[in-house]
Design goal:
The protein has 268 residues and is an alpha+beta fold. The chain folds into 2 domains: 168 residues, no CATH class; 88 residues, Alpha-Beta Plaits (2-Layer Sandwich), CATH 3.30.70. Strands 2-3-1-4 form a 4-stranded antiparallel beta sheet, sandwiched between helices. It is elongated, with a radius of gyration of 30 Å. It starts with a helix and ends with a helix.
Length: 268
């Protein structure tokens, strides 16, 4: 029972640390994916008095991925029954050119305003419509969530270090007599500390299994998936090989570092 309690005292901080670490990276992936999809869907509409050449626009305005002309045919077709074909031809000549500008990356509101100002200063266009407010609300919320998750991860890391350090000292005191006897017989450092490192490895593995299981099944929960769909975000699938391997590696390095730190301090 005491051994189980000791293991739980290490598994719990490791579990919270790994959960926070994976959540931070998951949030980063969601934000990157959402920004990429916004970049594909988002465009700036401009009105130009004459035809725009894509290369000219790209050379003057940074961050432009493509320039596509918006056909006025739909508007003119609606007027065919109302005005004569001669007037339609004249109207076609008088109408300005409309273009859709795609961006290389999805910008924030300040960058959108900078692009708008540069477009107007270039004298290539007479009007710019950015539609920024309708696209950035959820994106800003996700960026804020990503920032909060990394700040939260730092606090969790500090707390986990303190809890792990305390528990490793308890382990060390429990096995100190055995280690002292092994020291008298000339046992090397790795042999004296093998049990503590083995316990750290086992607890790191168990913590990784628990966190991985949670992240495999949590996105499949109906409420979670429906909430994500309502925000038009995609939760990346947990890669049991890459993600779990990374978590286990991070947990193992963290645990071994704490064990080595505690043993080093005790031997001074």
């Amino acid at each position: 029972m005491k051994s189980l309690k000791n293991h739980l005292s290490v598994i719990f901080p490791l579990f919270v640390l790994l959960f926070s670490l994976q959540f931070a990276f998951l949030t980063q992936k969601i934000v990157s994916d959402y920004a990429q999809r916004l970049t594909q869907d988002y465009s700036i509409i401009v009105v130009a008095p004459k035809s725009l050449e894509e290369e000219v626009v790209k050379s003057r305005i940074g961050g432009i991925k493509s320039v596509e002309e918006i056909s006025s045919k739909i508007v003119l077709d609606r007027l065919k029954g109302s005005i004569s074909s001669q007037n339609i031809s004249l109207l076609k000549l008088a109408l300005p050119k409309f273009y859709s500008l795609k961006l290389e990356v999805f910008p924030d509101s300040k960058e959108v305003e900078k692009i708008k100002d540069r477009l107007m200063e270039s004298k290539l266009v007479t009007r710019v419509e950015t539609f920024a407010k309708t696209h950035t609300k959820i994106y800003k919320m996700l960026v804020l969530l990503k920032s909060i998750s990394f700040v939260f991860l730092i606090f969790i890391l500090i707390i986990s270090v303190l809890l792990m350090f305390k528990q490793m000292r308890i382990w060390l005191l429990e096995h100190k007599e055995r280690m002292d006897i092994m020291t008298l017989f000339g046992a090397p450092f790795w042999m004296k500390s093998a049990l503590l490192y083995r316990l750290a490895i086992v607890d790191s593995f168990l913590s990784t299994v628990f966190v991985s299981t949670l992240y495999v099944f949590l996105p499949q929960n109906g409420e979670v998936s429906n909430f994500a769909a309502s925000l038009d975000i995609v939760i990346p699938k947990f890669d049991t090989l890459a993600d779990a391997g990374f978590l286990f590696g991070a947990s193992l390095l963290f645990s071994i570092f704490i064990v080595s730190l505690v043993i080093g301090k005790t031997n001074k």
